[in-house]
Design brief:
Chains A, B: GO terms for molecular function: DNA-binding transcription factor activity; transcription cis-regulatory region binding. Chains A, B: This is LacI family transcriptional regulator. Chains A, B: Pfam families: LacI, Peripla_BP_1. Two copies of one chain form a homodimer. Chain A has helices spanning about 10-20, 20-30, 35-50, 55-65, 80-90, 110-120, 135-145, 165-180, 195-210, 230-240, 255-265, 300-315, and strands spanning about 70-75, 100-105, 125-130, 150-155, 160-165, 185-190, 215-225, 250, 275-280, 295, 325, 330-335. With about 350 residues, the first copy, chain A, is α/β, with parallel strands linked by helices. A six-stranded parallel sheet of chain A has the order 2-1-3-4-5-11. In chain A, helix 5 links the parallel strand 1 (about 70-75) and strand 2. In chain A, helix 1 crosses helix 2, helix 1 (about 10-20) packs across helix 3 (about 35-50) and helix 10 (about 230-240) crosses helix 11 (about 255-265). The N and C termini of chain A lie far apart (about 70 Å). The first copy, chain A, binds a DNA duplex (16 and 16 nucleotides) through helix 2 and helix 4.
DNA sequence: CTGAAAGCGCTAACAG
DNA sequence: CTGTTAGCGCTTTCAG
């Protein structure tokens, strides 16, 4: 139908091909304003025949509106963020808005760069992971004059609005359950990530609550890089060699927890009677393990949905420009690796 | 530093604040053309102080250039695509270009929508998964007048350029190795995905090669939804109940393969002597399993890098506008679940 | 090295 | 219901 052409088609081409003014063509193509069925048909036919694709750059400049929501996350390989994203997409599906993703690799400088880059496209809103940002990033977010939702975490001060869980509380709850179940000699394994503030907060909540119960972490180890499953396996083996009397292992994520679980299960360990295990995230991926790992879900999908809903609402007319804090409650699953007491 | 303002800052604001013409401000901010050190300093100081973020919409419209590469993939939850993406990002890092991701959920209509949407931003290139697209999508890709690289697969005709592996050949190679190892009673498990053409092609290559060796698939089962690990476990159990004399199980992806592996390992099956297993993808994630699953890597990262490099090269001056086919060679790993002879 | 003028392709705001 | 007139904020081009 179309002919090869170096220059992309413009509204004017459609206008000429259909004998209708540019303005009316624009109305038809945007389904905005009333146009008679006859001309509408003529225009659509011409547009289709030519293979016209509107130029959003020009449209956005003229209308001063860009229906994009910038979504800024640390990583895609983490399993948790794709789920947040699908919550966002799902929720935005019914609206004009579209998510655009930027990845920071947990680096504040990269976050700053990505944020700057995305804001320069003048999006209608920003959804960004975490509450910890560089001063420059916070300044940009404030200055942008658009709704900003910081997600995943509520332990801290948001620029505008935050949606997430309290990781301190999550660590605390896990510690309480472990104590309640009567475990005493507790080991911790996690990522060596000074910049993963949420893991850090969980760890803090965890150790502080143990301390209140008169228990101290008996051993701990941090890793970085490599296959998480393999790392969990190795670290668990090493830790039990070093501190054989541990009766509970708390992992900062489910993947290393699964590695530990597989290792102990093979060794014929008496789980959860003699040794208990728990991870974090509620990764559905792991459902087929020999034992179900105790874990705590982080409400990933729900966080995405809620954040997206807030942005969408604020973009609608007559929205209250108020910031808010939405704290979701993670649910603990005991699985097969934490005594229910 | 900045003041609250509803209206985002413009070049004119920076111009007024620095007492330098808009044009020269623009030159400084884009580091284009020669500007005296003194004025450059003045401009940069003003821009920083005000918190100016350039408006790329306006810039793109004026310059007729958008440094975006549209990347269109079926899914983010698949583990394989995030790796392709990181190959792309890595390769684009050194250039002006930036990837923008769109997800199709394996649905041709959604692909068409996403493609239309992305093309309307006039990107500098398109990287799109697969060779199978609707007529409309192919038309748009041809019409766009920008480099288009179809990735993952080379079994078929590309619009412009393709980079990937031959999935037919991958299936064939696996079949050859299985026959060579002397397995005879072979079961297949995979996703119920009429739209996953690559899985289909592997399956075809696999069965055709078995047939040449006088072997027919003894049993097969397809699933959809749910946790892949759990599905692999269940399907394996069911299949062996139904067809107990199977001596090899070929899985269309590593996750269900891992489920089967865990199941059989727990049952104390004699792997790989009495029963062999193989998956597909080379998912590093699974490195900590009790046995290493035989698999074939799909060159995910390398595909991303190559595709990005091609787009970048074509965007440089004096590039040959030629389409090409880049077929990469997947490597087979025997792991612990496929007899080496 | 710096500035002035003229759009990029589309849509808001008015007229008819 | 349809058309006309101005820009949107930046960059290209051409003069100084």
């Amino acid at each position: 139908m179309q002919t090869r052409s170096k220059r992309p088609l413009t509204l004017r081409d459609v206008s000429e091909a259909s004998g209708v003014s540019e303005m009316t063509v624009s109305r038809v193509l945007r389904k905005k304003g009333d146009v008679s069925a006859a001309t509408r048909e003529k225009v659509q036919e011409a547009a289709r025949r030519l293979g016209y694709v509107p130029n959003k750059i020009a449209g956005a400049l003229a209308s001063q509106r860009v229906n994009l929501v910038a979504v800024i996350i640390p990583s895609l390989g983490n399993m948790v963020f794709p789920e947040v994203l699908s919550g966002i997409s799902e929720e935005l599906e019914g609206t004009e808005l579209q998510p655009v993703v930027g990845v920071t690799d947990y680096q504040p400088e990269k976050e700053e760069k990505v944020l700057f880059e995305m804001l320069s496209w003048r999006p209608s809103g920003v959804i960004i992971a975490g509450l910890e940002h560089s001063d420059a990033s916070r300044a940009m977010l404030k200055q942008a004059g658009i709704p900003v939702v910081e997600i995943m975490d509520t332990d801290g001060e948001a620029v505008d609005t935050s949606v997430g869980i309290s990781h301190r509380r999550a660590g605390r709850i896990m510690a309480e359950e472990i104590l309640k179940a009567g475990y005493k000699r507790i080991g911790f394994m996690g990522t060596k990530m000074p910049l993963d503030h949420r893991a850090r907060k969980r760890f803090e909540g965890f150790t502080q609550t143990l301390a209140k119960g008169g228990v101290e972490i008996a051993d701990q180890e941090f890793y970085s890089g490599g296959s998480a499953l393999a790392k969990g396996r190795e670290m668990t083996a090493a830790m039990l060699r070093r501190t054989p009397d541990l009766d509970f292992l708390y992992y900062s994520n489910d993947m290393i927890g699964a590695g530990g679980l597989l290792y102990l299960h093979e060794k014929g360990a008496d789980i959860p009677a003699k040794i208990g295990l728990a991870g974090f995230n509620g990764v559905e991926l792991l459902d087929g393990l020999p034992l179900q790992l105790a874990t705590m879900d982080a409400c990933r999908r729900e966080i995405g949905q809620t954040a997206a809903r807030i942005i969408a609402a604020r973009n609608a007319e007559g929205a209250s420009d108020e910031g808010q804090v939405v704290e979701l409650s993670p649910t603990l699953s005991f699985g097969d690796t934490l005594r229910t007491n």
